[in-house]
Amino acid sequence: MSPSADISQKILFVDDEILLLKSIKRQFRREFDITVAESGAAGLAALTEQGPFAVVVSDYNMPGMDGVQFLNAVYRRQPESVLVMLTGRADLDLAIEALHNAHISRFLNKPCPKQILQDTLSDGLEQYRLRMSERLLQAQLQQANQELNLLNNRLEILVAEKTRALQLQYRHVANLARMTHSHTVIAALIAAVTELTRIESMSLWLSPHLDHRFTRHHPMSPEPAQCDLSACPPGLMANILQNKQIWLHQPASRLPIGDFDQRFFPGPPLMSVPLHSKKGVLGLLNLAGEPKAFSADILDALAGIVDVTTTALQSHWHREAFEEAQDAIITALAKLSEYRDPETGAHLLRLKKYCGLICRALANNPAYRENVTPEFTEDLIRSSPLHDIGKVGIPDAILKKPGRLTAEEFEIMKNHAAIGGDTLRAVYDQYPSQSFIQCGMDVAYCHHEKWNGSGYPQGLKGDAIPLAARILALVDVYDALTCRRVYKVPFPPAQAKAIILEGSGTHFDPGIVAAFLAIEDEFQQIAEQYADVG
Fold it and tell me: Which of 49, 53, 144, 286 makes the best surface tag, with the fewest CB within 10 Å?
């Protein structure tokens, strides 16, 4: 039995607004198994009678028992449940109290967009699944250790094998909970199966869209192998896709293995393990080698590892597709200004690369390490193309003027920082959970501020300028210096470096300048690799 076979997927909503509860049940009746309760007391009764619930969502303001008290009571009874507070009371103190005292994982404001609520519920179900899988595996591991004390010497090898399999399962589930990308999940699966089976010759074919078009993700090659199994000929692969069960080579098997089947194995077919969901087969893990017997414990552990990995992959693919869509929207917004200022070329791509380089260098500096987190770096890289989005509000006569701007024209041009910042602030007010929008707002408002306070539009000085904007200010100037414009030829790298150094302490943050100087050769490589064409 897989670790996730009996794990609850039920969701409990508690709110004294009956119409809201009816609306939520109606909106999500097809996606989720939702139970509702109109008070904290009713919610606790539902917990006793119908629990466990994977996810519990509660309002704050309720008669008799507020949301913090209710969620705290839920935590004492079911500490594995994922707790979410959904409230119309946008109060920082409330959020802090809920985070500290009610053990919640998310704090959402009413009205909450359907997509954000749906993603929160999906993520909550996945978190609960991983928590319960880990708990079940721990219980199995304890049981295996108890059995070890009862068995005699003749069973030591068998018990050791079972314990090894369970420990590997536990470690794999714990590792998955810390992973942030599908590529690392795939690598972890290959490593776990290799350790479990002691077989290194294997291939992994995946079909993320469940469309029978499979791509080989292991072993990797310069040109990834692809195959369409929608018209699979009779044989091994057709049998596995239909039955969705582990296939193990048996000498007496009459199942034909043709040339088509053989192409999916890196050697003599030994075992094939399908990665399947409710909607179909999304992957095939194929092991190759001479015929070999596997114990039931190894096969059960293999099935468990593949099962939990399948769930993790689907979760990461969903999130990555969402982030790719966000990046596409960001790029599209940024290109609104780029199309009106066509001389920028690959400017946006270079800025993202430069920001990544600076963040990497600052992360090694004790003065910046606490702020330059992986999350900060990701937000800055994603939002950097938005820095000049405000140029869409600048007249073409000024934006496209080939010569130097007059004082009056420059004052109008300076408005693009406020226009861009105000635009993104309006978006952030609607979607405050999207940290990259806040970062984009910072760089749009402040990328023309200067360290000594002489910049615009607010005249901010020193650390009052957001760190993201201080980084963007330097890399934006570097790119402008080293690229061709209608009003100038590109400056040599040495001259650009000298200008940046001259601006240290006046235009630029000295710490960021120092980071730039340490990796200036990498800036040159990016400038050459992604130079404008034409």
Answer: 49
